[in-house]
TrEMBL record, chain A:
The gene is cbiQ. It comes from the Bacteria. It is a multi-pass membrane protein. It is found in: Cell membrane. The chain crosses the membrane at residues 43-61, 73-94, 114-132, 144-161, 235-255. Pfam families: CbiQ. This is Cobalt ECF transporter T component CbiQ. CDD domains: EcfT.
TrEMBL record, chain B:
The keyword ATP-binding applies. SUPFAM superfamilies: P-loop containing nucleoside triphosphate hydrolases. Residues 24-254 form the ABC transporter domain. Belongs to the ABC transporter superfamily. Pfam families: ABC_tran (PF00005). PANTHER family: ENERGY-COUPLING FACTOR TRANSPORTER ATP-BINDING PROTEIN ECFA1, HEAVY METAL TRANSPORTER. GO terms for molecular function: ATP binding. The lineage of its organism: Bacteria, Bacillati, Actinomycetota, Actinomycetes, Pseudonocardiales. SMART domains: AAA. This is Energy-coupling factor ABC transporter ATP-binding protein. Keywords: ATP-binding, Nucleotide-binding, Transport.
Length: 256, 263
């Protein structure tokens, strides 16, 4: 998160990729993923090209590939789904002699499609997250004219999630100090009631925060607090990998 | 010192025709909550420019209710509130909220943005300050509370005392006519408490400080007003009020153990 916060998906740095304005990176990542999704699944070498392109971005941003790969495990549940497809899919089938398995051919292609596009999408998102603090992502969304209310809610969430987590921790400590042991099923009720009172407390805090915001002249619209300007140069730099990705997508259509 | 059960109007001293309007002029303010609970019964309070006044009183006396009237968050049932010559009313609510800077008790309620500098910029930006002027305001306000180095940090990673001072800066950045502090010394360790006092003493803004911390009131505010059951029951020099144990006792106020004051 912005200054001082550490969040596990961000790798602080000062590379050219880190320094690009957030909105440029958001647009570039979005368009890049669109190119990947638009590529025909049989265009196998093109996907290798995308991976090389991402690797180039990592090199410029000085992100160790291992760092990214460790974080890409969030994709795991989708991989499980992809693995099921060849087993459950329809005809025609292919025999795997060395395993004695009969697998569905459209299922295999479907699995490959999910796996490769999903992985490239996850890697792109991770690259965006690694080079952009959360705070800047929100500013970027604001500059891209995302609905103001959504950006405001996300901003407040970013600030208060830790405050509320700390409150929950204190409440839990206070319960434990009075002999509460949530491992016993019959004591789970206390935890549930704790969640309820945490909700009420958070709600009340919301009211107090709103009051404090009104007192400083809040009228329902967040003022723009930064006047950093995004130049054409930023856009050109940021979108150059997208141009390569678009060329790859076109190649994909041509070779299949 | 006066200790009458009725509201006591403050004598106006030396207010010639050319004198600036008082920072705060509350007259006959009465208010009942929608559930029928009457919180204020005709408050009169006048604070001249540059004065530092402590607002004392037990829990439930109506202190917070009074504070929320000062910038128009609550609308009086009866009476008027005038800030620096401008009545608190719908039309100029924006200007009123700029003029009345409320520092709330819990800095976590006040500091809601991810970085200190953004939070300090929030107020002035709402009031139309932008660009370099905004940066200058932010810097000046943070410097005034000794936090200039911490603009890029998250409020979450500051100590309690630092958070309190940043909360103060968010309000100072609006350049208020009157600064209203709600329990400024609560939850502060002795050093942070003293540091905050030094910052406050260094400001020349008019100040209304709501507090239970009587020694703090004595240190910071030459004048005190005691509010109980929705009326002003005493108004005078802080030392005189605090050295009257009978008055304090009547209104559930008392000096900490071991303290005593001679008038």
């Amino acid at each position: 998160m912005g200054a001082g916060h550490s969040h596990p998906l961000h790798l602080p740095g000062a590379s050219p990729v880190h320094r690009l304005p957030a909105e440029v990176k958001i647009v570039a990542a979005f368009l890049g993923v669109l190119c990947v999704v638009a590529t025909p699944r049989e265009a196998f070498p093109v996907f290798g090209g995308y991976l090389l392109l991402l690797a180039a971005v990592w090199a410029v941003a000085r992100i160790p590939p291992g760092w990214i790969l460790r974080r890409s495990v969030i994709e795991a549940p989708f991989v499980v789904l992809a693995v099921l497809l060849p087993v459950t899919g329809g005809a025609p089938y292919v025999e795997l002699d060395w395993l004695g398995l009969t697998l569905s051919e459209p299922g295999l292609l479907g699995a490959w499609n999910i796996l490769v596009k999903g992985t490239l999408g996850v890697l792109t998102s991770l690259t965006l997250a690694a080079t952009t603090p959360l705070r800047d992502l929100l500013l970027g969304l604001q500059r891209l004219h995302a609905p103001a209310i959504v950006v405001t809610i996300a901003t407040l969430m970013l600030r208060y999630v830790d405050v509320i987590a700390a409150e929950a921790r204190r409440m839990r400590l206070a319960r434990i100090s009075r002999g509460h042991d949530p491992r016993f099923l019959w004591q789970a009720g206390a935890t549930a009631k704790g969640v309820g009172s945490l909700f009420v407390r958070s709600y009340e805090r919301g009211e107090r925060v709103h009051l404090a915001m009104l007192s400083r002249g809040f009228t329902g619209r967040m003022p723009r607090l930064s006047d950093a300007v995004t130049t054409r140069r930023h856009w050109l730099t940021g979108l150059s990998p997208v141009a390569v990705a678009a060329a790859l997508a076109v190649t994909g259509w041509v070779i299949t | 010192m006066s200790a009458a059960p009725e509201p006591v109007p403050v004598p106006v001293s030396g207010a010639g025709p050319a004198a600036p309007p008082p920072s705060l002029d509350v007259r006959g303010l009465a208010f009942a909550y929608p559930d029928g609970h009457q919180a204020l019964y005709g408050i009169d309070l006048r604070i001249e420019r540059g004065e530092r006044v402590a607002l004392l009183g037990p829990n439930g006396a109506g202190k917070t209710t009074l504070v929320l009237h000062l910038n128009g968050i609550l609308t009086p049932g009866h009476g008027t509130v005038v800030v620096g010559g401008l009545p608190v009313a719908g039309r100029h609510l924006r200007e009123i909220r700029r003029r009345v800077g409320i520092v709330f008790q819990d800095p976590d309620d006040q500091l809601f943005l991810p970085t200190v500098a953004e939070d300090v910029a929030f107020g002035p930006a709402n009031f139309g300050v932008a660009g370099e002027a905004l940066q200058a305001r932010v810097h000046a306000a943070l410097a005034a509370v000794g936090m200039a180095e911490h603009g890029d940090r998250s409020p979450l990673h500051l100590s309690g005392g630092q958070r309190r001072r940043v909360a103060l800066a968010t309000v100072l950045a609006c350049e208020p006519e009157i600064l209203v502090l709600d329990e400024p010394s609560s939850n502060l360790d002795p050093v942070a408490r003293r540091e905050l006092a030094e910052v406050l003493l260094g400001l020349d803004t008019t100040m209304l400080m709501v507090t239970h911390d009587l020694p703090y009131a004595l240190q910071l505010c030459p004048r005190s007003v005691v509010l109980d059951d929705g009326v002003v029951v005493a108004d005078g020099p802080t030392r005189e009020l605090l050295s009257d144990p009978e008055l304090l006792g009547r209104h559930r106020l008392e000096l900490p153990y071991g303290f005593s004051l001679s008038p």
